[in-house]
Amino acid sequence: MSHYRGFSVGLLFLSVCCSSVAWEPDLHYGLTKWVAFNAGFSLQDAEIIARGTQAPDEGKLYPAPSAVIEGACFGHRDDDLIKLVQRYHFASYGPVPGSPSARKVAPGSPAAMSLAEKEIQTVLPTQPREKTLEDLGVALHPVEDSWAHQGEPGIPWTCWKDLAYGHPATRGGWKKHDADLTYLHEAPDTLETARRSYDVLEAFLKTHASMRAHPATPWSKLEPQVQEFARARSKQEKSDWFRKQKQVPLSSYTSHPDFLQHINLPDSAPTRHSRLLPAFENVSAASQDTRQIQVPNDAREFVEQFLNTWIVERSPERALEFVDVEQFGKAFSPSKTASGPVLARSVLDMWLVRDHGQVNLMGHGVENTDDVIEFRKYPQIEAASLRDAIYATGERPYDLIPVTAEKSVEQSQHPDAYAVVFQFKHAPRDAVVLLVTRDVQRGWIVSGLMWWIL
């Protein structure tokens, strides 16, 4: 039987997720617009600023998830790409490449403030107003992220330690969403994030006085409302907070009208349960670039059939026919009393639950327990095709990346294992990785699964 232990993974990860995106759209987009309006901008200008602040977590240029997977994992190395991750998400003046300890992030540091200070001081009379406001918004992103990403970056096992970034261990680590959730960091982090953004926006209006639409609301009056925002523990509570802000109506959020549906809080009042921990053992970044290795057709066909059975047909039970259930289950906890099929089924079910915020509380964390959660009883996602449900960095809705063993160069051109990397659209801050290996008797099988919070 083929095992993934001992393999060296070459490009692993992602924006698919991975990233390490911090704070979520409720803060980067929603709260930033509210703060901008209260600092003195018009609703229209505040919308443009907030759109700019959210932008580094989206698209293809700045997002930490896609940049990290492309530039620091699965054997790939791209220093320039990772420097963008540092500039916009993990601000420091530490060397890239460099040790994680040399790349620590400090809240509100000069590195985090550098882009914002430049926007405050720069006046370009001929530059279009919208471009100026968008640039200001983008400059706010590393300021805000410096509180969420403070500390030494965590490094996923499969990435280069001198390049990759992930949520710091002090903020819950790269396997959890904790760094992003405001209710876990009300004081001082969420409050200080909002306060520093407010200060930057006020300072900008002093050097761009023509953009002021009305007097600023004193911070002392805003702080209690930010505290209430930070304490909201579900999508419903966040929505209730925004609906109460009559001067900044929820209907005015036109760039991302459904932004509250893309945060990792449960839909309604959360209920915490025990959690499962997936993990690959003894996996590290490979020394060679695997991008040039061709994936055989039978491997692609196997992956396509498995994903469609699992996700589109929503049949985890039949999908288990593609899985080495015992090997798959070992990654979650060797102390589990449940059988491999039960564990494997629970993990596959987990990713089909529509409310991923609730999943984060129930089974998307780091606690090893003997409980197996019945995820199938919760409302499920629906998809007519894989593209409706998942996406990746390439042309396909998933990336299929060779995993090479320690063997000769000639042998490594025909790998016995592949990593299948993608993001679920209903959980866009998680990078999901399947390990597909060639078994002597069964052919291709799914032998492992892990995820990375981006």
Q: What would your notes on this structure say?
A:
This protein is of the alpha+beta class. It has 2 domains: 25-252, no CATH class; 275-453, no CATH class. Helix content is 39%, strand content 9%. The chain has helices spanning 25-39, 43-54, 64-72, 79-88, 110-121, 129-148, 186-207, 219-231, 235-243, 297-312, 316-319, 325-330, 340-350, 356-363, 386-389, 409-412, and strands spanning 8-9, 390-391, 399-404, 417-424, 427-439, 443-453. Strands 1, 2, 3, 4, 5 and 6 form a 6-stranded antiparallel sheet that branches. Helix 1 runs antiparallel to helix 2, helix 3 (64-72) packs antiparallel against helix 4 and helix 6 (129-148) packs antiparallel against helix 7.
How large a portion of the residues is in β-strands, by DSSP E? 5-15%
**Based on helices, strands and strand pairing, what is the structural class?**
alpha+beta
End-to-end separation: 33 Å
Oligomer: single chain
Shape: globular
Instruction: Give the radius of gyration.
Output: 22 Å
Individual helix count:
16
- Count of DSSP strands: 6
Biggest sheet details: 6 strands, antiparallel
Number of domains: 2
Low-confidence stretches: 1-20, 272-291, 405-412
Helical content (DSSP H or I, runs of 4+):
25-40%
The succession of helices and strands, N to C, reads: EHHHHHHHHHHHHHHHEEHEEE
Provide the residue-averaged pLDDT: 82
